[in-house]
Amino acid sequence: MNQWKNFSKGFFKDNPVFVMLLGMCPTLGVTSSAVNGLGMGLATTFVLVMSNIVVALVKDFIPDKVRIPSFIVIIASFVTVVEMVMQAYIPALFEALGLFIPLIVVNCLVLGRAEAFASKNSLGSSIIDGLGMGLGFSMALTMLGSIREILGSGKIFGFSLFAESYGMLIFVLAPGAFIALGYLTAFINKVRKA
Amino acid sequence: MTYFIIIISAIFVNNIVLSQFLGICPFLGVSKKISTGIGMTGAVTFVMVIATIVTYFIQKLILEQFNITFLQTISFILVIAALVQLVEIVLKKVSPPLYQALGVFLPLITTNCAILGVAIMTVSRDYNLVEAVVFSGASALGFGLALITFAGIREQLDLVNIPKGMQGAPIALVVAGLLAMAFMGFAGMV
């Protein structure tokens, strides 16, 4: 398979968030600001790439019947690594993301790629697939986080764009997440089909 | 009284789907018909309560005793995965039509973050066993309430004329946003 196509499909053609609607929980839950979205995206990318590597390496040794539980254990191990590293080095982000870090383990995107791609393809393709999908996911989360941060508090990555008094609080709160993602998905779909 | 507050808080104020963003995949995926929504709620309630009880004991009797709480994520998800298999086997035998209706989403309860999320929240909030059971049951009901309300709205949406670009996922997300806004009205109640 063309490796560039394999890498770039995660950004646009098969974007995990806008097109495949995978990993919705962290997408909505942590994107109250651009930084949180980016942090979550990169943490997921790490887990995705590492689990794709291990799954691609061990796929021939795992009996078919127990492959899903085995994949989950592999993913959970890397999530634990991410959890401990983040707690040690970036405690502020760790606090902000909270419950959603251990929940990377149940992100359908990670298990989905392990099952649908890494368990059928070579090591090299699996790494590229994980990287592409992970970065596509990060891009989507950062986009959504930026939009919500700009609309909700008039800032982006913490820098003020508008006067202090500006802000539609609803976009930082739960309903804004759904509504912003809804319109963003509609927009991306429109562009994709055009 | 504390139980009452836990219940009201879990169902309305901090609704697990609409304000905590857990379990969004089944919320969007199996909400096309009210009947499947009810089945999904049943399966989730069953798995969630049992999973919370089992993980509670694992946390207290194994992880904390041996000082290996860092294994929480791995051990919890394994227990949940095993439980879901069990529910699947039982449901296949007891109620084949429901098993057919839930289809692909039953194995996906494993990756329903609401289950793992509630198990972890129970531990981090330091609930005792009774509170844990009440909390998980109420959370599952909250999930059901959101899911079934949403399914009702989506059944109506099938009948109206939606602009082409908004069909499918986008309109569902916007509707979920409005529903979340309605649930925000409960904020400050507890």
Provide a descriptive summary of the structure in words.
The complex is a heterodimer of chains A (194) and B (190). Chain A is an all-alpha fold and 194 residues long. Chain A is built from eight helices and two strands, in the order αααααααββα. Chain A has a two-stranded antiparallel ribbon with strand order 1-2. Chain A starts with a helix and ends with a helix. The model of chain A has no long low-confidence stretch (mean pLDDT 87). Chain B contains eight helices and no strands.
Q: How large is the share of residues in beta strands of chain B?
A: under 5%
Q: What's the overall average pLDDT of chain A, rounded?
A: 87
Helix content of chain A: 55-70%
Instruction: Please give the order of strands in the largest beta sheet of chain A.
Output: 1-2
Q: Which structural class fits the helix and strand makeup of chain B?
A: mainly alpha
Low-confidence parts of chain A, pLDDT < 50 over ≥5 residues?
none
> What distance separates the N and C termini of chain A?
26 Å
Shape of chain A: globular
Q: Which oligomerization state do the chains in this entry correspond to?
A: heterodimer
Number of DSSP helical runs of chain A: 8
Number of strands of chain B: 0
Largest sheet of chain B: none
What structural class do the secondary elements of chain A suggest? mainly alpha
